[in-house]
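Example record

The entry below shows one chain as it appears in the dataset: sequence first, then structure tokens.
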Amino acid sequence: MLDKSFIGKTYPRFVFEVEKGRILQFADAIRDPNPIYRDTAVARAAGYRAIPAPPTFGYVAVMDHDQSFGLLRDLKVAILRVLHGEQWFTYQRPIYAGDLLTGETKVLDIYDKKGGALDFIVSETSLSNQTGERVCDMRTVIVVRN
């Protein structure tokens, strides 16, 4: 059973610079050829102020700042026992190349099922841009096989 005293724990804020090349790399990884992710002129012609990030890109900030794996290390969970259970994204506004995002991760819940055979870790990361506007909230459920 995992340490439930982690429920409510908030991790230190982190800062993530959204680089055009990182957006392009992500678009390539998800095989999205849309030119708005590649060309500033095309993005602006489509009504964006800069190159927008594709959906789910916010999770790049979480991974690049070790938020998920850091939590697992803190809970002393062996990565080989972990399954990615669920992921939700709630968008308030687009993420753009050039944005400076501030993120904060909080542990929302830890519970077990199947008589303790499975532990669940629910966390949420909120991202705000350089003007303090909330851009994305991401909720993650990690399943730990015991």
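Notes for this example: The longest strand covers residues 100-113. The radius of gyration is 17 Å.
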